[in-house]
Specification:
- With 298 residues, the chain is α/β, with parallel strands linked by helices.
- Helix content is 35%, strand content 18%.
- It contains 8 helices and 13 strands.
- It has helices at 11-22, 72-92, 125-139, 167-176, 196-208, 228-239, 263-267, 275-291, and strands spanning 2-6, 26-31, 43-45, 60-63, 97-103, 144-150, 152-154, 181-183, 189-190, 193-195, 215-219, 226-227, 245-247.
- The strands form 4 sheets. A 7-stranded parallel β-sheet has the order 3-2-1-4-5-6-11, with helices on both faces. Strands 7-10 form a two-stranded parallel ribbon.
- Strand 4, helix 2 (72-92) and strand 5 form a beta-alpha-beta unit.
- Helix 1 (11-22) crosses helix 5 (196-208) and helix 6 packs across helix 8 (275-291).
- The longest helix has 21 residues, at 72-92.
- The radius of gyration is 19 Å and the shape is globular.
- The two termini are 26 Å apart.
Length: 298
């Protein structure tokens, strides 16, 4: 299958495109800024917010490119306008299949378990632009389209230098750095994470399905719901860290989106590795990253 992958200069995009090639597909990457090093597939430099691709005979598009931060105007161009241009290209070229990688952030703040039907509350600009892009995909005339709302993605690319704003990554960094960790939500159940290799496996399942039954939206995440204390203990054990994990319940501390229902995706073939294995793989990724720095993201 000939597949166009946007965001091929970014973290998840590089992994997905390389995974497609390993699975026997022909991948063509699009990037805006950073060209991936030694990519086993051709990469075209293109700003999707300003122009459309001109690539023939594409069977499927996997749209990963996105901006996480910026002004409202920048995010509208980088996320919404870029998606609009890519959809126009796919419609014109009669591409049959379109996968849009979105985010659980479209829901904003959530006190309970998220499902595909959950509402949106206090979403930040990034989440708003991703949701509107989802709407564009759904309204398009592309025959088969799927939206994947991703949780925190783990992999060898995870930025462990700038963890401010992420309690999960901050605690993981402290464990790897042999620093003591205080967990204020030790008993909270948590599955808002997925290793990129599990995403690649699900994409392969989707691409080999005979039919997608029109438009679909799936939330992804770890299958098991571990307590946050168990999550930290697993990472500590894999790292061989001497860190002390201190459990200290703090009243009023509620994580944003800790639980995700993956039932709909599971019914469609999503079957990730165990949460423990993904966490251990993540720790090994970080150790390797410190020895072999990866490309900067788009």
């Amino acid at each position: 299958m000939r597949i166009l992958v946007t965001g091929a200069g970014g973290n998840v995009g590089q992994s997905v495109a390389a995974g497609l090639v390993s699975a026997g597909h022909e991948a063509i990457g699009i990037c805006r800024n950073h060209m991936p090093k030694n990519a086993p597939y051709p990469v075209i430099r293109l700003d999707l917010s300003r122009e459309r691709p001109d690539i023939q005979n594409v069977d499927a598009v996997i749209h990963i490119a996105a901006a996480l931060n910026g002004t409202a105007k920048q995010l509208i161009y980088d996320n919404i306008k870029a998606t609009e241009n890519l959809i126009s290209y796919a419609e014109q070229m009669e591409v049959k299949r379109f996968v849009y990688l979105s985010t659980v952030s479209v829901h904003g703040r959530s006190d309970g378990e998220l499902s595909e039907e959950s509402g949106r509350k206090d979403a930040e600009l990034y989440g708003v632009t991703k949701y509107l892009s989802e709407c564009l995909v759904g309204e398009s005339s592309i025959p088969e389209k799927i939206v994947l709302r991703l949780p925190r993605m783990l992999g060898p690319f995870t930025d462990m230098k700038h963890t401010k704003g992420s309690g999960f990554l901050t605690m993981a960094k402290k464990i790897i750095d042999e620093e003591d960790v205080t967990c204020f939500i030790p008993g909270i159940r948590y599955n808002n994470f997925l290793h990129v290799e599990e995403l690649e496996k699900f994409l392969e399942i989707l691409l080999t399905k005979q039919e997608w039954e029109g438009a679909q939206i799936f939330l992804l995440g770890a299958k098991e719901r571990l307590t946050m204390l168990d999550v930290l203990k697993i990472m500590k054990d894999e790292a061989g860290s001497s860190s002390k994990i201190l459990a200290e319940e703090k009243e009023g501390t509620v994580p944003n989106c800790s639980l995700i229902s993956t039932e709909r995706a599971e019914a469609y073939g999503f079957s990730p590795d165990s949460a423990e294995h993904m966490l251990r793989r993540f720790v090994r990724d970080i150790w390797k990253q410190r020895k072999e720095p990866v490309n900067e993201p788009v």
